[in-house]
Amino acid sequence: MDRLPFYVKYTGAFRDLKGRGYKFWKAFASNYRVYTKRFNGQEYGQWTNIWQHHGGYLEVDNFMEFTWLIVGTVARGEHKHWVYPDSIFRDGGKLDSLTFYVNMKDFTMLVDDANFPYEQTPDYHLRHRKEGITKEELDAMYEEYYDTWRQISLKSYIIQEIEDLLADGLIAVVPDERKY
């Protein structure tokens, strides 16, 4: 993949991350310095990483290199219009997560909230196939879908963490001019 146009730069002091619930560790043989925050008390739950190398940058769970899309959306306040869908379980109430579709080719992002038309989800045609489609056609449809789209579900507390980091001036979406 070519370099993406933006990334999320961490602008704060790394030593302050521990007080925000981040844990320090070293990754890979290069001993990259990473600060990770896991949410909801789960060891393997959703996370945010702040990497110290390359000047410091934020990754949000499976958004990874596309984190700038979700952070930019929250920075513009667009998340305030999202409607969390009703729960399908007996207890009712609202779900506390949303599904996002990231187009890895043109860098657009769709938010599958309660107002999003189900028929417009990128994988709708895969879930509701017409009769008579061949295995080769189906394989080609799946290949095109997975080459184009990344589907990510995020809990609301991740959005809150992004809001908090933005409000405290600790992250910013900036052009990616880093040298590797």
The major beta sheet can be summarized as:
4 strands, antiparallel
Oligomer classification: single chain
Query: Count the strands?
Result: 9
Structural class of the secondary elements?
alpha+beta
* Weakly predicted, low-confidence segments: none
The average pLDDT value, as a whole number, equals 90
Please give the radius of gyration in angstroms. 18 Å
Strand order of the largest sheet: 2-3-4-5
Polypeptide structure, described:
This protein has 180 residues and is of the alpha+beta class. It has four helices and nine strands. The protein has helices spanning 67-75, 124-127, 135-148, 156-167; strands at 6-10, 23-27, 32-38, 47-51, 57-60, 97-103, 109-112, 149-155, 171-175. A four-stranded antiparallel β-sheet has the order 2-3-4-5, with no helix packed on it. A three-stranded antiparallel β-sheet has the order 7-6-8. It has a two-stranded antiparallel sheet with strand order 1-9. A hairpin with a 4-residue loop joins β2 and β3. The chain is globular and about 60 Å long. The mean pLDDT is 90.
Structural topology:
Elements: E1 6-10, E2 23-27, E3 32-38, E4 47-51, E5 57-60, H1 67-75, E6 97-103, E7 109-112, H2 124-127, H3 135-148, E8 149-155, H4 156-167, E9 171-175
Antiparallel strand pairs: 1-9, 2-3, 3-4, 4-5, 6-7, 6-8
In short:
This protein has 180 residues and is α+β, with helices and mostly antiparallel strands. Helices cover 22% and strands 27% of the residues. The mean pLDDT is 90.
List keywords for this structure.
alpha+beta; 3-stranded antiparallel sheet; 180 residues; 4 helices
